[in-house]
Amino acid sequence: MRAKNITELSGYRRQLSEVPNAVFLHWQAKAKYEFPGIPSDAIFFARATEGLMMFFDYVRRSNRPCALPSKAADSVWHAWNSWSSIHLDNFCIKHFGRAIPHVEATQMANKMDTALANCLITAQLAERHVPGSSSLPRLFALDRKLHMPDGYFYFATSLRIGFRPMNARGTDTGKAIYPESFDAAQLLAAGLISTLAYEEMMKKQAKAATVGSSCGSSCGSSGSSNSSGSCDAGSGGCDSGGSSCGSSCGSGCGGGCGGS
């Protein structure tokens, strides 16, 4: 009943109601081998599938490739594609206007970071957030919400969005990473935000820079990598990863990319 309620209350109710039960059964039988430790219950599947519908919708809204930031949603994409790629293509054409190919991260080369940033901005616009702000869209919080084993724990500080890898138990671990493609200058250079949005982001960073010195001293003494980052002034911060998402996530922040 809870899984059905997820469908009934979702903004993608029509799409979710047309996902064949055979996809769930195939996912239930196969996903555990490709994604070790993944739950196999109907509630997890419903949430993950809703996340996949969000992603397909963002690909539809955007005229650029989008990278999928959730391994939970990607597990459904993989299972559906292996069950029947033809059915999946027809489903996407019916509900999202065209077939959406699954492109592995290894085939994206250095384009994965930009595709992930595009997904972030598209998701923020869809949820009526300011593009380029530190608001975390639902799709980016999905793995964290579902405690996805080896997923991506995205979080938002007052200025930035970053992530930490999750372990086999579905909890976050290790040093926080702030993808360079999420930086204001790179978002502007990629044409993902306007000059006005860029200027607003820079004003916020400049305002926060006044606490930068105190941040440096307090972070140096605490050294906690499991904090979401209360000291986050400017483009630096307590857990400044510095590396880009494509090189840090291994499987490409979810492993899938919907190309235009």
Overview in brief:
By secondary structure, the protein is mainly alpha-helical. The chain has helices at 2-9, 13-17, 21-34, 42-61, 71-83, 85-96, 112-126, 142-146, 184-189, 195-208, 212-222, 245-248; strands at 66-67, 152-156, 161-165, 257-258.
Question: How would you describe this structure to a colleague?
Answer:
This protein is mostly helical. It has one domain (2-258). It is built from twelve helices and four strands; from the N terminus they run ααααβααααββααααβ. The chain has helices at 2-9, 13-17, 21-34, 42-61, 71-83, 85-96, 112-126, 142-146, 184-189, 195-208, 212-222, 245-248, and strands spanning 66-67, 152-156, 161-165, 257-258. The protein has a two-stranded antiparallel ribbon with strand order 1-4. It has a two-stranded antiparallel ribbon with strand order 2-3. Strand 2 and strand 3 form a beta hairpin. Helix 3 (21-34) crosses helix 5 (71-83). It is globular, with a radius of gyration of 18 Å. Residues 222-260 are annotated as: Disordered.
Category by helix and strand content: mainly alpha
**Tally of individual domains:** 1
Measure the end-to-end span. 37 Å
How many distinct beta strands?
A: 4
Mean pLDDT: 84
Strand order of the largest sheet: 1-4
Q: Percent of residues in helical segments?
A: 40-55%
Shape, principal axes of CA atoms: globular
Supply the number of helical segments: 12
State the major sheet: 2 strands, antiparallel
Query: Over all CA atoms, what is the radius of gyration?
Result: 18 Å
Q: Which oligomeric form is depicted?
A: single chain
Strand content: 5-15%
